[in-house]
Design goal:
The protein has eleven helices and 15 strands. It is α/β, with parallel strands linked by helices. The protein has an eight-stranded antiparallel sheet, sandwiched between helices. A five-stranded parallel sheet has the order 3-2-1-4-5, with helices on both faces. GO terms for molecular function: ATP binding; biotin carboxylase activity.
Length: about 350
């Protein structure tokens, strides 16, 4: 497939699964870029696989032998004939060994270089600090800087939002170390957690679940930004003023290791990057939710003139969900969203 959007990359291996991989596949194909999904033996018919142009089996169900296996991911990229590897979760995007192996294979790595990941420690986790920021790092510095606050449950951020008063109050005050990301060679997307002392707590590459806040706030597509960073074809940043934004995560509450089957529709609202509301479900009716992987079912994000409006728009999608066949935390997430809307 030819590169029809001036992206500079015509085909990618999407290394990931679940709602995040579904969102990346959807966005990548909208750009005219061929997508190849990867999957384990237990997810041959997973939604991200069905959405992609092609797919490659990595290995058995355990993540260490499939989705997180560096040799198998690199071999899948070679066999599929793609130009680039686009790692989705921070666990892969922050893996210096994988980044090096991809480049050594003659392919493009969409993310910070291996040496940079090694130097910064490569957290490889979804930042869950109560506050942080999102950005795109270029040779000239930070773009689309977006402050973010997070509501956490058991160490996992379930709702993230731009703080009250932003963007009217101007850009966030960043730790000094944040400005050094460009100096040390970090390129592409970054999600940062900030500790109570104002220092960097976590630095993650890839498509963190918070990134939808940046997308809604600035009306941009994070996948396009990542691919353009990797190919050296970044466009000038838009001049439109950013908006407030919120993203919520819907998770299954099955006991750890327990399987289930999704029987009802999950939130899924396909829309352009500059839309007010976007939802991505990782499963369709009939899909099996086994106990091997993350319990994330869907993400819903929204923009608005203020955080309260964005929170209410997000809650509207999650309120009165049909019976999905598996228990989930939708009620608890909506409670957080309504508290956020009330200030």
């Amino acid at each position: 497939m030819a590169d029809t959007g001036g992206i500079g990359i015509s085909s990618v291996l999407v290394a990931g699964r679940g709602p995040a991989a579904c969102a990346v596949v959807r966005a990548t194909e909208a750009l005219g870029v061929k997508t190849v999904a990867v999957h384990s033996a237990s997810e041959r018919g997973a939604r991200h696989v069905r959405m992609a142009d092609d797919s490659v089996l990595l290995g058995p169900a355990p993540a260490a032998e499939s989705y997180l296996s560096v040799p198998r991911l690199v071999e899948a990229a070679r066999r599929s004939g793609v130009e680039a590897v686009l790692p989705v979760p921070p666990a892969l995007a922050g893996n210096a060994e994988l980044a090096a192996a991809v480049v050594e294979s003659g392919l493009t790595w969409v993310g910070p270089a291996a040496g940079v990941l090694e130097r910064l420690g490569g957290d490889g986790v979804e930042p869950a600090s109560a506050q942080g920021f999102l950005a795109v790092v270029t040779s000239e510095g930070l773009r689309h800087v977006t402050p973010v606050r997070r509501d956490r449950d058991a160490g996992t951020a379930r709702v993230s939002w731009t703080p009250a008063g932003w963007p009217a109050g101007g850009g966030p005050e960043l730790p000094r170390a944040a400005h050094r990301l460009a100096e040390v060679g970090w390129r592409g997307l970054v999600t940062v957690g900030i500790d109570p002392d104002g220092e960097l707590a976590e630095v993650a590459a890839g498509f963190s679940l918070d990134l939808a806040v940046l997308e809604r706030a600035h009306g941009v597509d994070a996948v396009e930004l990542a691919l353009r960073c990797a190919s050296g074809r970044l466009r000038p940043p838009p001049t439109a003023a950013p908006r407030a934004a919120v993203v919520a995560q819907l998770r299954a509450t099955l006991p750890p290791g327990t399987a289930g089957r999704v029987t009802g529709r999950l939130p899924d609202v396909a829309a352009p990057a500059d839309a007010d509301v976007v939802a991505v479900g990782g499963y369709a009716p009939g899909d099996r939710l086994d106990g091997w992987y993350d319990a994330l079912l869907a993400t819903v994000s929204a923009a608005g003139p203020d955080t309260a409006t964005a929170a209410l728009r997000t809650a509207e999608v999650l309120t009165d969900l049909p019976d999905t066949g598996v228990p989930h935390d939708g009620v608890a997430v909506c409670e957080v969203l309504h508290r956020l809307a009330e200030g």
